[in-house]
Amino acid sequence: MTQIDTHRTAAPAHDRELIPRMMARAMLALVVAVLVLVALARATDQPLVATAPTGDIVASRSLLLSGDMSGAVTVRKADGALIADLGPDRGGFISGVWRVIERERTKNRVALEGPVTLRRHDTGRLSIHDPSTGWSADLMGFGEDNARAFARLLAQ
User: Fold this and answer.
1) pLDDT score of 74 more than 60
2) Phi and psi of 72, rounded to 5°?
3) Tens of pLDDT, residues 7-37
4) Is residue 7 part of a domain?
5) Residue 81 and residue 103 in one domain
6) If both were cysteines, with which of 31, 61, 109, 142 could 146 make a disulfide (CB 3.0 to 4.6 Å apart)?
7) Structural domain tally of the chain?
8) Paired residues of 127 in beta bridges
9) Distance between alpha carbon 41 and the CA centroid of its chain, in Å?
10) 78 and 115 housed in the same domain
11) CA distance linking residue 140 with residue 38, whole number of Å
């Protein structure tokens, strides 16, 4: 005859406490400290110190971007003349920026068509600006190769 053990044994101590209490308290203290510092900085109007330098605009160009989710993108001048027709294998970062602009325009409920402005600053940095939504991005923050893709569009 077999005997069935009906009494459960206590779980090992390490199974009951997945996150040590001291670690949870330390994480909570860190979150509270960050919130206090941010609130203090906002209340005292501390200047933003980790922003990219903008500089004066030395060159700019209006571009019309269109594409699809495959990664293909077409870049045209404001008058409609073709600058670049990049297939899915070559659209890359430009196609990604087009998707972000399309998302921002959808979110702001503005027309999906319309020009964006590509700008070169006297600091050597490139930025892109969407006048219909106010969205802009410093393209240097995405790496040298990605900024170079847009620099070619500005040079053409």
Assistant:
1) yes
2) -75, 145
3) 666 556 555 678 889 999 999 999 999 999 9
4) no
5) yes
6) 142
7) 2
8) 119, 138
9) 24
10) yes
11) 27
HEC letters along 29-53: HHHHHHHHHHHHHHHCCCCCCCCCC
* Domain-embedded: residue 1: no
Q: What is the pTM of this model?
A: 0.65
75 and 105 assigned to the same domain:
yes
Q: Are 63 and 76 in contact (CB under 8 A)?
A: yes
Statement to judge: residues 27 and 86 lie in one domain: no
- Residue 129 forms beta bridges with which residues? 117, 136
- In our burial notation (b when 16+ CB lie closer than 10 A, e otherwise), range 16-35 reads eeeeeeeeeeeeeeeeeeee
Give me 11's structure tokens: 């779980």
The strand pairing partners of 60, in sequence order, are: 119
CB atoms within 10 A of CB 121: 19
**pLDDT tens, residue by residue, 96-148:** 999 999 999 999 999 888 899 999 998 888 999 999 999 998 888 888 888 88
H/E stretch holding 92 reads helix 92-107
The amino acid at 56: D
